[in-house]
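Example S7 (structure tokens).
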């Protein structure tokens, strides 16, 4: 088995830049309510956000050996995505590796497991998204795959897929679907801005969401 694949197709930089303008929730809805990673994966600081191609790595529980290998091979702008089999009781990433990523221009770190040194990571300014915060250390013993398909947070991620993260969570966009998702996300943003304007102009939820017939069919009774 080849553990590390160094060559895979990344999306064009302008595609990543245009997709980054949309929120994770907008993208999730626009692409048919798919792609959302498990909701427990959140930023260690609500102001953190990112958008970039995935570098996937599988680590054994309580073992960050392959994470360190992945940082070595990752490129500027990449998002390092670490699966550990949903094992939470380990701080597989902290300020030292955070500085290693920051120095290389890596866009973000995402894991279903735990991270630590969060105050230092927040000050560093590297977006870090994790399943939890845990001070327990790790070993460096077990080999695993890098840039192979990875199941994490209830989604399968392929190297080069685009990950978008913000205060609400993380969503994945297939690299080959990115242009379509950008167009759909823009249309959704435009529609929502128009709805907000109509609400401020006096529109109501039942009217603007076209609920009259649905509520009538369900037998809604209102006492005035």
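Recovered sequence:
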């Amino acid at each position: 088995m080849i553990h590390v694949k160094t060559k895979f197709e990344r999306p064009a930089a302008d595609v990543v830049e245009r997709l980054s303008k949309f929120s994770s929730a907008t993208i999730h809805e626009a692409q048919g309510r798919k792609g959302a990673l498990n909701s427990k994966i959140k930023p260690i600081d609500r102001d953190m956000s990112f958008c970039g191609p995935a570098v996937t790595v599988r680590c054994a529980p309580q073992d960050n050996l392959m994470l360190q290998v992945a940082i070595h091979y990752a490129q500027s702008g990449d998002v390092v995505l670490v699966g550990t089999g949903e094992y939470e009781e380990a701080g597989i990433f902290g300020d030292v590796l955070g500085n290693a990523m920051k120095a290389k221009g890596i866009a973000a770190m995402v894991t279903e497991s735990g991270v630590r040194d969060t105050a230092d990571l927040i000050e560093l300014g590297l977006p870090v998204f994790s399943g939890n915060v845990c001070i327990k250390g790790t070993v460096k013993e077990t080999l695993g795959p890098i840039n192979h398909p990875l199941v994490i947070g209830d989604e399968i991620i392929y190297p080069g897929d685009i990950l978008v993260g913000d205060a609400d969570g993380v969503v994945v966009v297939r690299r080959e679907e990115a242009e379509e998702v950008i167009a759909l996300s823009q249309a959704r943003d435009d529609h929502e801005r128009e709805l907000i304007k109509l609400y401020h102009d006096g529109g109501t939820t039942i009217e603007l969401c076209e609920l009259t017939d649905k509520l009538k069919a369900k037998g809604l009774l209102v006492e005035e």
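Notes on this example. The chain has a mean pLDDT of 96.
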